[in-house]
Amino acid sequence: MPRSLTGRLPEMWREVPLVDVCELRAGASTPADSGGPVRVVKPRNVTDGRLTGTPDGITEESAGKLGRYRLASGDIVCVRTGGVGRHALATAEHTGWIFGTGIIRLRPGEDVDPLYLNHYLSHPSVQDWFRRNVAGTAVPSISTGALGTLPVALPPMRTQKSIGRALGALNEKIAIHEQICRTTAELRDALLSRLLSGESGPPGEHTGDDGACA
């Protein structure tokens, strides 16, 4: 079995440079956040394989000049400066968003499944490749040309889709549990304020007619 960046390749798998299976484009310089209706993806919005947080917004007029920098469902955005190695998959809700400076957009071709590729970029060996291929010290960065040389292990398309679905289902469960944790923490904080201000008693504590706890 031939070796690849992520280990030995099973039969029918192959390894190719990223540029052979994706179109790569560096992001555009965009106007300052104006609260406009067109969302702009910046590095801070890219985490854990998905887009998060509140993105900046620009006007339709400004976005009209940036047609080449619109996202489509299935695109993958990678952080180019700062947190190199972070990446996220764009879904239907992100269609038409602009990817700004500090981002490199990957547009997968027909040989690679977007969901599979998004998970592939999280592989420890791939993340190590990012660390070894950044330039700069104060602010690590990676160029479009360098990112294009990233070796990608490609199984047959049917296998890619199966891997993508399986890992995607696990990521959805992780996201649900994270939301539960955030909601529970918010409830705790709200209750903490009420309890420590004397607005309410501890849960389960009942007061009788004489004012004593039952």
TrEMBL record:
PANTHER family: TYPE I RESTRICTION ENZYME MJAVIII SPECIFICITY SUBUNIT, TYPE-1 RESTRICTION ENZYME ECOKI SPECIFICITY PROTEIN. It comes from Planomonospora parontospora. Residues 10-180 form the Type I restriction modification DNA specificity domain. This is Type I restriction modification DNA specificity domain-containing protein. Pfam families: Methylase_S. The lineage of its organism: Bacteria, Bacillati, Actinomycetota, Actinomycetes, Streptosporangiales. GO terms for biological process: DNA restriction-modification system. The keyword DNA-binding applies. The keyword DNA-binding applies. Belongs to the type-I restriction system S methylase family. CDD domains: RMtype1_S_TRD-CR_like (cd16961). One of its GO terms (molecular function) is DNA binding. Keywords: DNA-binding, Restriction system.
